[in-house]
C-alpha cells in the first residue's frame, strides 16, 4: 500500500522486499519513469514496474554480487556489473542474455548505454573506463586518466562525448572517436558522485560530496554556475525534460535549481533517505532508495513545485558614470544545441550471445507473465517515450511501427575494433508540427549559401573550369560592394567617436539604418562596460529589432545589452519615476526624469517581446526565460 506523507507535494508510493539479501544498486528507466531495475548481493537483477510491488522478471547469471545496473534508452535492454568486474547485457523482450563482457579487474561502479548505438560504457574501481560494442566480446576503447574510482558516466545527447565523474574530485570530458580527454573540470573540493548532460544545450552538470552542483559550459569549457544549498552530499541530479531547471536529490530532500543567475526555486522535504536515482513521469518526479533488502519509491508532484522565480537585481550606478568594472554577461548566452539522429521507439533486435555455455548459466525467470507481456511483448511493444499515463492509471499498450528486419550480422571479432557512431538521419516531420522561424546560427560548420551546385546552371554536359569559375564569381562584385560599404560606415562611426563621444557615435550608427553596424558598436560597449543612461534612450528601440532578428548573433547581442541595462539601470529608473517632485527648479533632475520615463516605456514594450520569445523550446527560449525573470519588476505599475 502507498503511504501518503503529511505533505501533498510528496508521498511514498511503495516499499517492498526486492531481494533475498541486501540490495546494492538500482536504476529507473529514464524514458518512461515506469520501470525499475534492482541488483542485490544475491547476484540477481530484478525488474519491476514502479507502481507495483510484484517482480516482473528476475535475471540470473552473475556469480558475484551485482554492483551497478542501467537501462538503455528504449528500456528494452538492461546491463548489470558485478563485484568481480564482469558485465552482462540482457534483452528484456526476448528474456535472454545478449552478451557477457569481461575486462575490468575490480567492482563495476557505473554503466551507461550510448543514446542510439550498440555501444556501452563502463567504469570501475580500477579507475579505467571502457567502451564496448555489445555485438562483440572485446572493448573498443579504454580511457585512462582518473586517479581514483569513477562513480558516474554519461553520454552526450548527440553520442559524440562521454563525461565521467570520479572520487579524485574531477570531471573529465572524453572524445569517443579519438579516445582522448577533451577537457578536465577541477572546481569540486570532494568526490564527484553524479554527472549529467543538459537535454538540449551544450551544458554539463555535476553533483558532489562537497554539497554543490557545478554547471559547465561545453563551448567555452568554463564553469558558469555553482548551485549551493544542499546540506548533505548531492547523490542524484536530473534535468527537467525542457531543460529549464535541474533537480537535486540529497538525503531526505529535493531541491530545484536554476542558473544564470544561480538560484534555488524550491526545497521539498522527501523521506526517501539516501536517494539513489530520479526520473520524471507525467509531471511527477520519481525517486527510489534502498536499505538492506527493501526498496522504497517516492513521488513528488511537479505541478506543485516551483520551477521559476524572480531574482534580485543588484548594482545601481549613476546615469552619468560608466560601469566601474567589466563584467562578463553570462546569463543570456545562447548555447549550441546537440545535433542527434532521429530514433524510433524500438531499437533493432540483436542476435543472442554466441557463448552457449554462458547462456545456460544465465537465465531470465518471468515471475509475472501479464506484466511481462504488457511491457516487453515484442509484437505490441510499448513506445515508452510517448506514454502520458498517470502513475496510478492502468497501463495502455501503444502499438509502435513494425520493427525493421534485422540487418546483416556486424563485423566479426577478428576485425579491428573501431567506434563508429550511427550516421544522423533526417528529422521526421508531421503534419501537425508548426514550422519554426529559421534562425541563422552564429557558429556554423559550413558557410551559408555557398553550395557550389547552387551557382552552376542545370546542364547535361559538363562545364569547363573557366565556365564554372565564371558562374561562381557572379555574386562576387556585389559582395565586395556590401563589405566596402560596411567598412566605410564603421570608419565614419569611429571618426565620430574619436572626435566627439560614444553617444554621438552610437546615434550615427543608428542613423545609418544598418543593424550590423549597431551590433558591432554594441559589442564594444558590452565588452568594455561603457554603458550610460544616455545610451539607453538611443539603443532600446534598436534592441527591439535585434531580439526579433533571424540572426542568432544579433539576438545574442540584443539579449546581452538588455540584461546589462536592466541589471545596472532599472533601480535608478524605478526610483527616479517613483520619487516625489522636489521644490524649485532642477534642470538636471528633470532631464533625468524624462530619460527614465522614455526608457521605462521602451522596456515595457521589450518585456512583451521577451515574454513571447520565452515560450520557445530550446536554447533561445532558455535565454529569453532568463530575461523574463530579470524584467519581472516591470510588471509592477510605476
Automatic annotation (TrEMBL):
Belongs to the WD repeat KATNB1 family. SUPFAM superfamilies: WD40 repeat-like. It comes from Seriola dumerili. Residues 474-631 form the Katanin p80 subunit C-terminal domain. Participates in a complex which severs microtubules in an ATP-dependent manner. May act to target the enzymatic subunit of this complex to sites of action such as the centrosome. Microtubule severing may promote rapid reorganization of cellular microtubule arrays and the release of microtubules from the centrosome following nucleation. Residues 418-427 have a biased composition (Pro residues). WD repeats lie at residues 16-58, 59-100, 101-142, 143-184, 185-226. It is found in: Cytoplasm, Cytoskeleton; Cytoplasm; Cytoplasm, Cytoskeleton, Microtubule organizing center, Centrosome; Cytoplasm, Cytoskeleton, Spindle pole. This is Katanin p80 WD40 repeat-containing subunit B1. CDD domains: WD40. GO terms for cellular component: centrosome; cytoplasm; katanin complex; microtubule; spindle pole. GO terms for biological process: cell division; microtubule depolymerization; microtubule severing. Its main location: cytoplasm. Keywords: Cell cycle, Cell division, Cytoplasm, Cytoskeleton, Microtubule, Mitosis, Repeat, WD repeat. GO terms for molecular function: microtubule binding. InterPro entries: Katanin_C-terminal, KTNB1, WD40/YVTN_repeat-like_dom_sf, WD40_PAC1, WD40_repeat_CS, WD40_repeat_dom_sf, WD40_rpt. The gene is KATNB1.
Amino acid at each position: 500500500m502507498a503511504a501518503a506523507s503529511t505533505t501533498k507535494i510528496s508521498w511514498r508510493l511503495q516499499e517492498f522486499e526486492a531481494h533475498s539479501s541486501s540490495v546494492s544498486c538500482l536504476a529507473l528507466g529514464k524514458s518512461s519513469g515506469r520501470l525499475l531495475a534492482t541488483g542485490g548481493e544475491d547476484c540477481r537483477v530484478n525488474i519491476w514496474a514502479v507502481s507495483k510491488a510484484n517482480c516482473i522478471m528476475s535475471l540470473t547469471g552473475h556469480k558475484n554480487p551485482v554492483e551497478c545496473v542501467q537501462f538503455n534508452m528504449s528500456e528494452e535492454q538492461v546491463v548489470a556489473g558485478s563485484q568481480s568486474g564482469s558485465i552482462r547485457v540482457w534483452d528484456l523482450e526476448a528474456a535472454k542474455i545478449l552478451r557477457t563482457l569481461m575486462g575490468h579487474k575490480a567492482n563495476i561502479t557505473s554503466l551507461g548505454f550510448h543514446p542510439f548505438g550498440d555501444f556501452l560504457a563502463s567504469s570501475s574501481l580500477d579507475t579505467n573506463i571502457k567502451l564496448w560494442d555489445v555485438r562483440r566480446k572485446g572493448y573498443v576503447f579504454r580511457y585512462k586518466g582518473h586517479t581514483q574510482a569513477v562513480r558516474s558516466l554519461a553520454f552526450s545527447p548527440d553520442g559524440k562525448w562521454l563525461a565521467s565523474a570520479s572520487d579524485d574530485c574531477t570531471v573529465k570530458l572524453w572524445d569517443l572517436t579519438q579516445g582522448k580527454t577533451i577537457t578536465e573540470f577541477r572546481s569540486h573540493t570532494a568526490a564527484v558522485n553524479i554527472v549529467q548532460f543538459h537535454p538540449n544545450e551544450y551544458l554539463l552538470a555535476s553533483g558532489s560530496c562537497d554539497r554543490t552542483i557545478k554547471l559547465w559550459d561545453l563551448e567555452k569549457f568554463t564553469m558558469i554556475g555553482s548551485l549551493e544549498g544542499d546540506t548533505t552530499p548531492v547523490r542524484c541530479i536530473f534535468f527537467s525534460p525542457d531543460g529549464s531547471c535541474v533537480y537535486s536529490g540529497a538525503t531526505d530532500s529535493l531541491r530545484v535549481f536554476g542558473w544564470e543567475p544561480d538560484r534555488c526555486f524550491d526545497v521539498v522535504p522527501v523521506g526517501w533517505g539516501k536517494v539513489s536515482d530520479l526520473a520524471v513521469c507525467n509531471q511527477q518526479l520519481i525517486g527510489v532508495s534502498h536499505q538492506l533488502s527493501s526498496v522504497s519509491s517516492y513521488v513528488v508532484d511537479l505541478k506543485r513545485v516551483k520551477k521559476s522565480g524572480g531574482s534580485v537585481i543588484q548594482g545601481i550606478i549613476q546615469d552619468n558614470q560608466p560601469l566601474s568594472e567589466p563584467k562578463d554577461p553570462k546569463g543570456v548566452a545562447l548555447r549550441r544545441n546537440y545535433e542527434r539522429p532521429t530514433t524510433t521507439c524500438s531499437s533493432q533486435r540483436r542476435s543472442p550471445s554466441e557463448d552457449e555455455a554462458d547462456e545456460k548459466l544465465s537465465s531470465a525467470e518471468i515471475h509475472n507473465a501479464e506484466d511481462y507481456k504488457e511491457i516487453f511483448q515484442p509484437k505490441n511493444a510499448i513506445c515508452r517515450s510517448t506514454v502520458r499515463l498517470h502513475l496510478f492509471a492502468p497501463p495502455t499498450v501503444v502499438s509502435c511501427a513494425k520493427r525493421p528486419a534485422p540487418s546483416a550480422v556486424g563485423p566479426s571479432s577478428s576485425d579491428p575494433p573501431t567506434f563508429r557512431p550511427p550516421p544522423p538521419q533526417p528529422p521526421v516531420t508531421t503534419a501537425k508540427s508548426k514550422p519554426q522561424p529559421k534562425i541563422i546560427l552564429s557558429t556554423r560548420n559550413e558557410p551559408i549559401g555557398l553550395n557550389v551546385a547552387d551557382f552552376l546552371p542545370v546542364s547535361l554536359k559538363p562545364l569547363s573550369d573557366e565556365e564554372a569559375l565564371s558562374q561562381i564569381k557572379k555574386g562576387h562584385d556585389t559582395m565586395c560592394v556590401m563589405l566596402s560599404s560596411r567598412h566605410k560606415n564603421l570608419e565614419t562611426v569611429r571618426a565620430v567617436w574619436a572626435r566627439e563621444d560614444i553617444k554621438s557615435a552610437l546615434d550615427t550608427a543608428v542613423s545609418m539604418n544598418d543593424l550590423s553596424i549597431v551590433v558591432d558598436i554594441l559589442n564594444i560597449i558590452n565588452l568594455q562596460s561603457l554603458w550610460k543612461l544616455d545610451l539607453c534612450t538611443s539603443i532600446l528601440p534598436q534592441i527591439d529589432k535585434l531580439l526579433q532578428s533571424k540572426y542568432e548573433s544579433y539576438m545574442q547581442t540584443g539579449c546581452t545589452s538588455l540584461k546589462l541595462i536592466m541589471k545596472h539601470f532599472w533601480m535608478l529608473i524605478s526610483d527616479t519615476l517613483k520619487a516625489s517632485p522636489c521644490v524649485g527648479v532642477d534642470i538636471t533632475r528633470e532631464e533625468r526624469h524624462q530619460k527614465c520615463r522614455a526608457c521605462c516605456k521602451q522596456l515595457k514594450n521589450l518585456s512583451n517581446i521577451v515574454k513571447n520569445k520565452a515560450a520557445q523550446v530550446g536554447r533561445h527560449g532558455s535565454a529569453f526565460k532568463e530575461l523574463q525573470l530579470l524584467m519581472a519588476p516591470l510588471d509592477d505599475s510605476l
